[in-house]
Amino acid sequence: MARSLSQRGLVLRVARAEPGRGWLRIIGGCWRGRRLPVALQPGLRPTPDRVRETLFNWLAPVIEGSRCLDCFAGSGALGLEAASRGAAKVIQLERHPAVARRLKANAAELGARQLSVHCADALDWLAQSPMTTVDICFLDPPFGASLLQPTLSQLIQHGWLAAGALVYVETDQATPLPDLPADWSWLRDKRAGQVRYALAQASAIAE
């Protein structure tokens, strides 16, 4: 028996016959329809299908050629979907070694040279100065972990975001969106079931 989920932008079908492992399907772009294994981790949670569809509709005008950072990669769905849709570079951060190994294996399976996976804690990784800035950042941490505000602060403090960068935030209904700098703006803010998701834009002037 199997059950279907959607997780971080991809449709997941979790096979009960293989404990500890499921699989995902990329839904758009050059790898549309490709199925890849996903290592399951406690706290990995589904994202409603309509949230996934809406997010990549928002990003459609800017995803081609973009540099993306997925701070809490999990299944890798958001980063894989971004790469499939034409992102030039995607950095995925995942602190759990087994999950990170699966992300690396999936990138190798696809021949996705634009994808780089780092087994690292997001806050520790973001404390360093970047080699280059990113145009799109995905912030979808475990619900209830209180990671949105400190992660956003690290991104800003250490100069990870390009001028006018977009930051996608996903959280539960009970958790407020993080505070933005005065010269930033929320472009979108929607709710679906127990999920709140939003898109912010950084100042168009580089700091």
Q: Would you write up a description of this structure?
A:
The protein is α/β, with parallel strands linked by helices. The protein has helices at 49-59, 77-84, 97-110, 122-126, 148-157; strands at residues 2-7, 10-15, 21-25, 35-39, 67-70, 89-94, 115-119, 134-139, 161-172, 185-192, 195-201. The strands form two sheets. Strands 7-6-5-8-9-11-10 form a seven-stranded mixed β-sheet, sandwiched between helices. Strands 1-2-3-4 form a four-stranded antiparallel β-sheet. Mean pLDDT is 86; it is low at 1-19.
Brief sketch in words of this structure:
With 207 residues, the protein is of the alpha/beta class.
Question: What is the radius of gyration computed over CA atoms, rounded to a whole number of angstroms?
Answer: 16 Å
Shape: globular
The biggest beta sheet reads: 7 strands, mixed
CATH topology, which one? Rossmann fold
Mean pLDDT: 86
Order of helices and strands: EEEEHEHEHEHEHEEE
Enumerate the strands of the largest sheet in spatial order, edge to edge or round the barrel: 7-6-5-8-9-11-10
- Helices, by number, come to 5
SS content category: alpha/beta
**N-end to C-end Cα span:** 53 Å
Oligomer state equals single chain
Number of domains: 1
Architecture per CATH nomenclature, i.e. the level-2 architecture = 3-Layer(aba) Sandwich
The portion of residues assigned to helices is 10-25%
Range of strand content: 25-35%
Unreliable spans are 1-19
